[in-house]
Amino acid sequence: MRMMIAVLMSLATPVAAQDWKAQPGDTAFDPAALTERLSGQTLVFFDDGQSVFESNGQYQYTYGGGGTWYGHWEVTADSTFCVTFVTGVERCDRIVENDGRLVLQTKDGMRFPVREERAHQEADT
Known about the structure:
Layout: H1 2-9, H2 31-38, E1 41-45, E2 50-53, E3 58-62, E4 68-75, E5 80-85, E6 90-98, E7 101-105, E8 111-119
Antiparallel strand pairs: 1-2, 1-8, 2-3, 3-4, 4-5, 5-6, 6-7, 7-8
């Protein structure tokens, strides 16, 4: 969990400057496919952390032990999405599929497989 906290608190570099380290079997998404795949979904990681990608662009990351970061998400290019948190911190990560499982990859090459994908129940506004 500490590793995920450190990852979330780090600042992202511009997407163009990123050198994503692909693993054998990684399949990237084009922007439209990644937007469709994430929109309205909750991704649950193996440490019980959860990323919520609301269809209106709102984003929440809740740590497995509690505590939530709020922000706004958008897909850029090269299977990458960026989140601007309410604190003003922005970070970009890459989502790939490998052997039927989504994997979140950080700019420094750390990989976090998704344990479960589920439709997010969005509140009526």
